[in-house]
Amino acid sequence: MISFKKLIRGKTGRYYLLLLYLAGVTGFVVGSLLFWGPIRWTVDYFQEEGASEETESFVIKVFIVLILLLAGAISFFISRRYWESEKKSKKWMIYVPTLFFVGVIFLWMNPQLTPGRGMRTENISLARISFVFGPYPSKEQIIQLKKENYTGIISLLHPAVVPFEPKLIYEEDAAAKEAGIEVIHASMMPWVSQNISSLETIKKLLVEGKGKYYVHCYLGKDRVNVVRRIIESQNVAVDASHVSTYRTLNEINNFAEGPLFYLGKAVYLLPHPSEEECLGYLLSGYAKYVVSLIDNKNFENLEITKNDSALYSAYAMGFNHHPFDLVHFDYIKLNEILDSVNFLPKPLALLVKTTRAAETGMLVQAIKSTFAINRLKIENIFKPGKIERMYPNIFYGNVPDVQQRKELFLNGIQNLVFLSAKTNPAQIGNDSGIKTHFLKDNGKLDSLLFNGTWYLCGATLEQAAKRFSY
Fold it and tell me: Which domains does the chain have, with CATH numbers?
């Protein structure tokens, strides 16, 4: 068996090490250049044109694929040429990409030099205090802030975010001291539980502060949007002439604990997010409310819920907990939960511990089926007392006439089920768009709970209820 040392010392091992090194270096360089230029220009264009979030998400994914292809092609080409060349000067094939890498690092550490960078801002004003949000300011911009009578700068940079932010903090403090403007450090990490003290600094300023403040992190995105949410929770008006961008749940397919599901009506089902995921996709401005469905089966789940409640409260995010047991599926309880969250602010995130569990599919189908139904209009099709909602996606009532069948279909009912063997299919017809089923046996109907929307008729409510196990 070949040892790892021998493999590395061999020509093949060194070739693959070089390939990996070049792939990392070129990927970083290409990704940064595309981010500063084409990606930013394209996203700004689509936002100005009012394109859908799905379109923006697709474009970003195309750029990611392009970065991977370019980095792979460039690193493969240089690696092959390096090993095939006999010239002593071939080391420049490694030095040049490395120099580009160092140059890009320099630009990241000096954000005022990055291509296409501008002071895109957003303003929020209260009676005695106002905030302007944006990216890291250069020395010249700090001087300009002083000339415009800003009271101070609120920096969200954190010294633990190395290698960039400690250097930027030092330079900002020096520039602010020279300009004669105060810097308030409300340092925030990308890990949300460590930001509570910084949030208290912001909240205290809202109560006691006066004047005009410039708020920034590095690029003016996630951390800035978190602070923006805190301030907006005070019911202040937002001047959205230059709106800060934030990441949406449509831009990502998976969290660490499993895939995300769009359920309709601006409601998403998510696995419990990591702290980075929570900051980037929930707390930074897109989601308006969070509802946890995590059950209370064990101490770990109880701790998760306890921590979530404290966390979302600190970040001024609406939060409710409706424990739901995915294993022992209770459709009546699910119906009650969905009714209770129906009027909460949207977009809304429903949280489960993980979406990799087999039961997640049942939950997704049940909620999607429920959201497909216009419950109030369906109940008004018939006289009071003539229709019952048995499950979130299943109604029971009298045999509908032609017009009633059309209205059922238009309001989300996909299937009409006759439970009586006496019903003559020829008398019913199929002129409403709704699918008609005739069941002559007395078997269970549990499969209906997982697929589609249904209206049952042709038997008593008691007889229909006996056909379900739940």
Answer: 4-109 (no CATH), 122-242 (3.90.190.10), 249-371 (3.90.190.10), 384-465 (3.90.190.10)
